[in-house]
Amino acid sequence: MMSRFGVLVAIAVASLAACTTPPKYDWGRYDPALYSYYKNPTKLADLTATLKAIIDAADAKHARVPPGIYAEYGYLQLQQGQDQVAIGLFRQEETQWPESKVFMDHMIQVASIGTTGKPAASPAP
């Protein structure tokens, strides 16, 4: 009786394991790069390169860039004084992920202040 139960459990587990789906997005080496950067902020170049590689890999495969990657890469560009590049990345995030519109509009406004010294005109609703 017990051995039949064990066989049934093994079959059930094997069946469920076969139902797993592959990840929806290719996050590349995002997790280790972010962790490394948090532990040692001097590894900013590594995180920047990782984010660019994720974007480039998705573009090459005609796949979607994972949520937040354009925004994070844009923020790093903003920190490095690349305001126009950051604005373009924030717009890409907003286009690909419409639910980020409010936050990305705010980040575009922040980046625009850095560029012009004045707040940008608010986008039409």
Notes on the protein architecture:
- The longest helix is centred in the middle third of the chain and has 18 residues, at 44-61.
- This protein has 125 residues and is mainly α.
- It has helices at residues 2-18, 30-39, 44-61, 69-79, 83-96, 101-116.
- Helix 3 (44-61) crosses helix 4 and helix 5 (83-96) packs antiparallel against helix 6.
- The relative contact order is 0.09.
- The chain is built from 6 helices and no strands.
Quickly describe the structure:
With 125 residues, the protein is mainly alpha-helical.
What fraction, in percent, of the residue positions are helical? 55-70%
Number of structural units classed as domains: 1
Strand content: under 5%
Q: Catalogue the unreliable spans.
A: none
Gyration radius, to the nearest Å? 21 Å
Global structural class? mainly alpha
List the helices and strands and how they pair.
Blueprint: H1 2-18, H2 30-39, H3 44-61, H4 69-79, H5 83-96, H6 101-116
Descriptive key words:
125 residues; mainly alpha; Serine Threonine Protein Phosphatase 5, Tetratricopeptide repeat; elongated
